[in-house]
Amino acid sequence: FILQLHSNSDKGDGSVKYILTGEGAGTIFIIDDTTGDIHSTKSLDREQKTHYVLHAQAIDRRTNKPLEPESEFIIKVQDINDNAPKFTDGPYIVTVPEMSEMGTSVLQVTATDADDPTYGNSARVVYSILQGQPYFSVDPKTGVIRTALHNMDREAREHYSVVIQAKDMAGQVGGLSGSTTVNITLTDVNDNPPRFPQKHYQLYVPESAQVGSAVGKIKANDADTGSNADMKYTIINGDGSGVFSISTDKETREGILSLKKPLNYEKKRSYTLNIEGANTHLDFRFSHLGPFKDVTMLKVIVGDVDEPPLFTMPSYVMEVYENAKIGTPVGTVTAHDPDAANSLVRYFIDHNTEEDRYFTIDASTGTIKTAKIFDREETPWYNITVAASEIDNPGLVSHVPVGVRILDVNDNPPELARDYDVVVCENTKPGQVIQTITATDKDNSANGARFHFSLDEGLSLNPNFTLRNNEDNTASILTRRRRYSRTTQDIYYLPVLISDGGMPPLSSSSTLTIRVCACERDGRVRTCHAEAFLSSAGLSTGALIAILLCIVILLAIVVLFITLRRSKKEPLIISEEDVRENVVTYDDEGGGEEDTEAFDITALRNPSAAEELKYRRDVRPEVKPLSRHHPSSSLDSIDVQEFLNQRLAEADLDPSVPPYDSLQTYAYEGHRSEAGSISSLDSATTHSDQDYNYLGDWGPEFKKLAELYGEIEPERTT
């Protein structure tokens, strides 16, 4: 039961009906419509809903008309302590440095209570520690956890589990409580110095240990962790500080002892080392616990080992002259047994490479000799490997590199540095330098770096060219004439003698080929002998061959045509019948001047040659013609026209030949004119006062013509 509604209109006769509406009406709250009693049907939870708003009204049961206006009322849910405190963030993990002062704050925990903090003590929480004493404490009101002891040592205990309780009702009896766990870890600080487990150590190292190799390890213990345990090892004193070195392995924090110099049992059999291990990261708050380093003594004992022979030098360099005879001594290597036994040593060469086969060695003395004749210009240096072993123990072998330098002798004459293409211009002047030559020598600078050039003294004086030694390993070729002509001689040969400065000096002879070329005024080469035809025409060799082939084919066709034409010619047919009754047709124009078979025209060329009558050679005469004789005196005075008329009359009166027309040419010019010849063929022999210097202004195309007719002296700049 919660409450009862009552209306002044209610007479108790049941005519009034009560109606309830609002939050939870009909579900959480129900009403008796006759009496107006309101009851709850289920438990109420303040933490879910703190109050409900309802509306009540009284109506007439018969008419359902309201008897009074609707009334509003609020039902508030009163809180009771039904919720225990809770730690929403637990469990907790936290760290605190070791050796912290008492009361150092570690963590603050907070618990929440869902009850109404404004009503009673249901939500008033008090903190207490259930587990973790006497190391830690908690503030009852704030929940701050603090250290409760001085100098908590991580090395003694590192992890702690603390249980904190929160209780409502201000901690009174009957209050509800909740708890959480706080895991506390002490972090490390450098509060422990390193310590060697022993004050004295002993180490055995064989004398065969290689330089740079690790021969032992040593370690100092440090209770700290991480960077607080890092340390560095050093050798602070002792007679072995120059023979051994120590380094620190950062992973294992061990000291690695290494060998700096080779050990020799026969010279020193033990060493003493003082090794120090010290922390690298110091915390000055704990310097009073200190010093944070430790020292121990290490004794190194050297073990005796049978060692291979030892050479007196780590490497050898020897020299021998080239062209030396086979068996010439080059040098000697020496090795000895470093052990106390001092066994005899045997020498040999490892024939692993081709160079090792060029030398031999005396097994007892170690003397190296040549096995071939060397040429420095081919190979100036050889590298071989000599081995030495003990006779008593051949398995122990040591090696040493030997370099052999081949010394030079003057065995190569000098020669021209290259094939020179020497060109001289046609219009050059005497004393001009047309080429500078140099020489090379395969020998080194001590045997032939100085060259001397000269002309062959055994030959006669060269009228065309001379040579000048420049005293700087070069020579200049100079001209001795004013002009050179390609048409007269287009190539000259000049023998040159070259000698070096070696002992004894060597020399060689070379021949320079000098071409004569046409050049421009500035000295540029325009053309040389046969190249002129090709360059002027602008035709290649292939084009010239094609043109010549076409000309040959045309000549062959012409010859073939002439041959066929002559073979078709037939002699004149002289029929036995009366020529007057037959018309003979033929296609013959005569041979012209060059036809000497059909007619003899010598008489026509010179009237004085017609002393006697000459018959035609193409017709056989049957009747002798009338003979006519003229005195020689009359022939000299006969006129040409009269002579032709006579020949025409003879032809008309000759009965032995048929009448036909013949085309004849007469090359008779007549008597020489008294005026003389007007031809220009002989004009070259006469002297003319014409000035042809203006041809030099016409350009390079008329240069040759200007040189022929003018007096221009072409110049050439070298």
Overview in brief:
Cadherins are calcium-dependent cell adhesion proteins. Residues 7-87, 88-196, 197-311, 312-416, 416-533 form the Cadherin domain. The protein has 718 residues and is mostly beta strands.
Tell me roughly what share of residues is in helical segments: under 10%
Largest sheet: 5 strands, mixed
Q: Average pLDDT, to the nearest integer?
A: 81
CATH architecture of the domain at 415-527: Sandwich
Provide the CATH top-level class of the domain at 415-527.
Mainly Beta
Q: Provide the structure class.
A: mainly beta
Helices, strands, pairings?
Elements: E1 3-4, E2 16-22, E3 29-31, E4 37-40, E5 51-60, E6 71-76, E7 92-97, E8 105-108, E9 126-131, E10 136-138, E11 144-147, E12 159-167, E13 177-187, E14 200-206, E15 214-218, E16 231-237, E17 244-249, E18 254-259, E19 270-279, E20 293-303, E21 310-311, E22 316-321, E23 329-332, E24 335-336, E25 345-349, E26 359-361, E27 367-370, E28 381-390, E29 397-407, E30 415-416, E31 422-425, E32 433-440, E33 452-455, E34 465-469, E35 474-479, E36 491-499, E37 507-519, E38 525-528, H1 531-537, H2 541-568, H3 602-605, H4 632-637, H5 640-653, H6 703-709
Parallel strand pairs: 7-13, 14-20, 22-29, 31-37
Antiparallel strand pairs: 1-4, 2-5, 3-4, 5-6, 8-11, 9-12, 10-11, 12-13, 15-18, 16-19, 17-18, 19-20, 21-24, 23-27, 25-28, 26-27, 28-29, 30-32, 32-35, 33-36, 34-35, 36-37, 37-38
